Amino acid sequence: MHLSHRSGAAAANAAAAIRVDSVTKTYRSKGHSVQAIETADLDIRPGEFVSLVGPSGCGKSTLLKMIAGLEAWDDGSITVNGGPASSGRRDTGIMLQSATMLPWRTVLQNVLLPVQVMGLDYPAAKARALELLALVGLEGFENRHAWELSGGMQQRASLARLLVFEPDILLMDEPFAALDEFTRERLDIELQALQSSLGRTIVYVTHNIGEAVMLSDRIVVMTPRPGRIVDVIPVELPRPRTEETLSSPAALALIARIRRELGFAPGAEAGEEVA
Hints:
10 strands; alpha/beta; six-stranded mixed β-sheet; four-stranded antiparallel β-sheet
């Protein structure tokens, strides 16, 4: 069954930052096929923070990569800022779970790598990179090498690298999942602050229900394979949000609703992962 989960405002807005329209995706190999995405519809407004939540294998990362133009889809269409989704767009940046820092380059050189690849104004970008490193708490580490940084510090540098060429849209695939709980909580708070000051459109893949509630304007809930969008839930909690926010009755009700959509029994911990 084809279900549409567009918000009324976004569906009526031809200038949606991201529009996923009746998209399907099947992986085929050696006579076998696996349907990853079953007829997805989604509109994301400019400046909106939207999280994709669901169990492993539900197509969250596949959908994100299709929006980035890194994966092809079978049917339907995906538009980004009014044009077709494609790789190499300067208005779109992607951040993966691994920081993927080049060990022979300094932190500053790693942050400036997309600037060099795109042939942008290097002096202006260097000044911006230094501002971003200070913003993410890495001032004074500009000339250190990646291997001298902790995992959390490398992810901060990776976030600065994502922002340095000033993309309108940030696509983030479980960027903090490999970090310890304390570091992830701090980076979640910093990401909120960055979003508040920069106003970028963010699509964020996470297994962590509490993280999605803390960060998002809306949460897209997906089912196990074949991945379907079963609900798009608005998060109407005041900002800025902290871990304490997740203990509020409104947040606990949201967490319980998401768990019900995913088929779990009641009694969730706020930061529980979707296995």
